[in-house]
TrEMBL record, chain B:
Source organism per UniProt: Hymenobacter nivis
Gene Ontology molecular function terms on file: ABC-type transporter activity
PANTHER family: ABC TRANSPORTER PERMEASE (PTHR43471), ABC TRANSPORTER PERMEASE PROTEIN NOSY-RELATED (PTHR43471:SF1)
Transmembrane segments: 128-148, 177-198, 218-237, 244-261, 438-464
Gene Ontology annotations for the cellular component aspect, listed alphabetically: plasma membrane
Name recorded for this polypeptide: DUF3526 domain-containing protein
Assigned keywords, A-Z: Membrane, Transmembrane, Transmembrane helix
Length: 236, 472
């Protein structure tokens, strides 16, 4: 079976700190993998390695079968990234931000298409032509989702995407993720939100001190069992 | 990709009130400097043309006189205002505007605006070149210092790079975007300059020559602004915080625009000291003494010339000669003193050129010192253009005096008691200065042009390539 996202003995060391200790992981198309862990567990390091923003100390990360470190630009064509706090250009409108990021990814859309992507992401129509400087975090997050969707990415890398979102916005976000995974997009999401992980994930992994200590299919656990499992690992 | 980033930067800048205010201020300064400079240059040109016409008329309308008296009466050569002098006054304020043309004497160009102006001129004029060389880079620094640091601080850099953009593409996009913003500020002033030139042709050069100079002037500044923008973007890319980038860039601006130019000028004067005007005049006078003195009948060399003339014409006395010995003696003396002067003037010019060369070499270290001579040279207000005028004036003086000496020589013995008719002076063509062309100017500007291009190449090629290896 070919995987759209894969880590083989992926390791990252910083001076005086081992951030990631030999991660092995595979994601197939349409799968939603939620990585749980405390701050500093290595979740963001893992995402940065898949993005090619940092180089691995050992092992390799693969996107679409290509090694990220050797194909940093090519692998970015397959993925979209939504950080914890989507920071856009405040002097541009939501529409202009989406047009800009889409064009950087090689897609040029008509205004009607851009509006459709923003609407799909849940951004109110009245906001699309407003400058992003006036947006709430949730609205910026929606533009971030629209950017990812408009890129037709095969892999979504999400770093704490629902952190700070109100429940309604977080629910809308989850629904959109389910919709995208249903269309075959693989999702790799680092999160603290156990409830959200259970809700949208097909598998959850628990990371502790740079090591993936447990991986379970979400269908095999209810929310309370997942919470208990997480707490058990955190207190080991 | 680069176009998209450039467009984003341009739109963001246009919507940034801080830049709009600063940009409008600089634009207003540029437009004011263009208009005021043009008006002042036109007034100066009008005054000089009127003065030139007046002295020409006075010369033409002299009564019947002895030619040597006419040679001592002399004339003036007024230096026309350079076609683009209103954009860059260069050395115009310190070099003279008029030279007195007379027999036996090679005068320097006198009556500089600085001699006649108050002390305020010492603080410099507000010219278009000053704004372009000093204030626009400052505006560009304020515009560019956060090119990368603000992306880092705002957290937009990861999102940008995740779209498949390289740091180099990002930098090029920003350079193009900032460049468009700079063009928005500078363009109207240059367009106004072009319109003013088209509306009222400049002095001393045709409209095509001026258009060529203006195009090269604009191109030179485009390269200069590219260097400033690319340098600022690279500094920003290498820093984590905007404040550090701003401090570094402002420091570079102060060193480049204020400290280094003065330091190299002082170093040049110290390494290659030139004589004072009094020393030069004394040296020329001392050596000219070794030549013929047409006013001294006891002069040994004049007597020798007379003897040779007597032998050549096979006559025994001066009375029998068909030519005036005094006239030929004057001509020989003039030729000698002129050679002496030319030798000293060439040495002095070489000294100044060595001083200037040091500043030109400094252009390799400092792009400000590359654009400054380039700008002055293209405007026609640099030292080379000054020397060109001085030499043209001296060539005319020499030719005029020798023509008068020839007239005297042709009058034969006893010429001192006779006069030539007033029509004689009207037949002598007046001084008409032809400013050198663009090709000539560029030939004198290869050093600074090369230095500026090297800067652009080093930053655009080597500097931006390094960005690819740079981490977020």
């Amino acid at each position: 079976m070919s995987y759209i996202l894969e880590a083989k003995d992926l390791r990252k060391e910083y001076p005086g700190k081992l951030a990631l200790r030999g991660l092995n992981l595979q994601l197939a198309a349409g799968e939603v993998f939620c990585l749980l862990g405390q701050n500093g567990a290595g979740k963001s390091t893992t995402i940065n390695l898949f993005l090619g923003f940092i180089a691995p100390t050992a092992g390799a990360a693969y996107i679409g079968g290509l090694e990220v470190a050797a194909n940093a630009l090519k692998t970015k064509q397959y993925l979209a990234y939504i950080p914890e706090n989507v920071l856009l250009y405040p002097h541009l409108t939501g529409l202009e931000n989406l047009a800009l990021f889409s064009s950087l990814a090689g897609f040029r859309y008509r205004e009607s298409e851009l509006r459709a992507y923003l609407a799909q992401a849940g951004l109110p129509a009245e906001a699309v032509a407003r400058r992003v400087g006036s947006y709430s975090k949730g609205m910026r997050q929606k533009v971030g989702i629209a950017i990812a969707v408009a890129k037709h990415a095969q892999v979504l890398l999400l770093d704490e995407p629902t952190s700070g979102l109100d429940p309604k916005a977080a629910n809308e976000f989850s629904a959109l993720l389910r919709q995208l995974s249903g269309q075959g997009t693989a999702v790799f999401m680092a999160t603290h939100d156990i409830f959200r992980a259970k809700e949208v994930g097909t598998r959850v992994g628990i990371m502790r001190a740079g090591a993936l200590v447990d991986v379970r299919p979400t269908a095999a656990l209810n929310a309370q069992e997942l919470e208990q499992l997480y707490l058990t690992h955190m207190h080991d | 990709m680069v176009t998209s980033i450039a467009q984003k930067e341009f739109v963001s800048i246009r919507r940034d009130r801080r830049f709009v205010v600063l940009g409008a201020l600089v634009l207003a300064l540029l437009l004011a400097a263009t208009l005021v400079g043009r008006r002042a240059a036109a007034a100066a040109q009008q005054a000089r043309a009127a003065a030139q016409h007046m002295v020409n008329e006075q010369f033409r309308h002299q009564p019947g006189r002895h030619p040597h008296r006419v040679a001592h009466y002399g004339s003036f050569a007024f230096r026309p205002v350079a076609g683009l002098g209103f954009l860059d006054a260069g050395l115009n304020a310190y070099t003279g505007t008029a030279v007195y043309l007379e027999a036996h004497q090679q005068n320097s160009v006198n009556f500089s605006p600085a001699q006649q102006a108050g002390a305020l001129l010492r603080f410099g004029e507000l010219t278009v070149a000053f704004v372009l060389q000093t204030l626009v880079p400052l505006l560009l620094i304020f515009l560019c210092f956060g090119a990368f640091t603000e992306e880092r601080e705002a957290g937009t850099l990861p999102l940008l790079l995740s779209q498949g953009v390289t740091m180099r593409q990002l930098a090029w996009g920003k350079i193009v975007g900032y460049g468009r913003a700079a063009a928005l500020v500078v363009g109207p002033a240059l367009a106004l300059a072009a319109w003013l030139l088209a509306a009222g042709a400049g002095a001393g050069a045709g409209p095509l020559a001026l258009a060529g100079r203006l195009a090269m002037f604009a191109l030179s500044y485009a390269v200069y602004f590219f260097v400033v923008i690319a340098g600022a973007v690279l500094v920003s890319a290498g820093q984590r915080h905007s404040r550090t980038a701003l401090v570094l860039l402002l420091g570079a601006w102060m060193v480049g625009c204020l400290v280094l130019p003065k330091a190299t000028a002082n170093l040049g004067a110290a390494l290659h000291p030139g004589p004072t005007k009094a020393q030069l005049d004394a040296a020329v006078h001392e050596q000219a003494q070794h030549g013929l003195n047409g006013h001294d009948p006891q002069d040994r060399r004049a007597a020798a010339l007379k003897d040779s003339l007597l032998r050549r014409y096979g006559v025994a006395t001066e009375k029998e000669l068909p030519v005036s010995v005094a006239g030929l003696t004057m001509a020989a003396g003039e030729a000698y003193s002129s050679r002496v002067y030319q030798r000293h003037f060439a040495a002095l010019t070489r000294t100044y050129e060595r001083q200037n060369a040091l500043s030109a070499w400094a252009g390799l270290l400092n792009p400000y010192q590359a654009i400054r001579p380039l700008s002055m040279g293209l405007a026609g207000s640099d030292f080379a253009h000054y020397v060109h005028f001085q030499q043209a004036a001296e060539a005319y003086r020499y030719q005029l005096v020798q023509r008068l000496n020839a007239l005297q020589a042709g009058m034969g013995y006893g010429d001192k008691e006779r006069r030539l008719g007033a029509a004689t002076w009207r037949a002598i063509p007046p001084f008409a200065y032809q400013a050198p062309g663009l090709g000539w100017a560029l030939g004198h500007l290869l050093g600074p042009a090369l230095a500026l291009l090297l800067w652009a190449g080093a930053l655009g090629w080597l500097g931006l390539r390094r960005l690819d290896k740079m981490k977020m």
